[in-house]
Amino acid sequence: MDKKDIYEHLAKIYLDASSQTPKEPRRNFLYKHKNVFLGLTVLAIALSFVLFTSFNPAKLNKTPGEIALVLQPEATRINFNFDPAKKETYTIDIKKLNLSRFRALAFSLKKANYFDNISVRVEFTSAFREKSEIYVKNIPYRWKDYYIELSQFKNISNWANIRSLAFIVEEWNAREHHGVVYIDNIRLLR
Asked: Which end of the chain is more exposed for a tag (fewer CB within 10 A), N or C?
């Protein structure tokens, strides 16, 4: 071997050795981020526990296991102005639904004007033109839930074909001549 071969051989060994840096052992993603993964797992378990222990079906329907048919889930309002009209009506078309399996009507009401004294007439109409009504008096300024047993609507003889449900504000049942009544969460309960 001559000098040139030795120099080339040493240079090759030296350059190959210097370009190879010691490598860290490869670790998977979970090993590198184990603290993040552990923290997210603990957070998910804690959140599940809080949600599970705070869930109470009685808050949704007042009694556990209660079944409801929601007729109007969003809040709506009755704007009344009794200058030309004598009453304002909000009607839900029930389309001849059979209500004989239901026991009560539930809804929430509130008025817009704190000083107004308002009563609302709640009226069912059957397919046979039978009408029965209940008056809900002293509507509060804050939301209040109402539950009316269907047996209180005395003039309906057959609950198998109900055509409509109406909420009516009449001139003689309001102190002010204009205002707003809000209705929300109208449902039938079994």
From this structure: N
Query: In terms of DSSP bridges, do strands 144-149 and 104-111 run parallel, antiparallel, or are they unpaired?
Result: antiparallel
What is the model's pLDDT at position 64?
Answer: 44
Torsion 94-99-102-103 (CA) sign: positive
Other Cβ atoms within 10 Å of 31 Cβ, number: 9
Could you give phi then psi for residue 50, rounded to 5 degrees? -65, -45
Q: Domain coordinates of the chain in residue numbers?
A: 3-55, 68-189
Burial pattern 110-129, b for ≥16 Cβ within 10 A else e, equals bbeeeebebbbbbbbbbeee
Q: What is the pLDDT of residue 85?
A: 66
What's the mean per-residue pLDDT of the chain?
Answer: 78
The pLDDT assigned to 32 comes to 64
Residue 150: which H helix or E strand, with range? Answer: none
The fold of the 68-189 domain, in CATH, is Jelly Rolls (2.60.120)
pLDDT higher for 125 or 10?
125
Give the contacts of 117 (CB within 8 A, at least 6 positions apart): 138, 174, 175
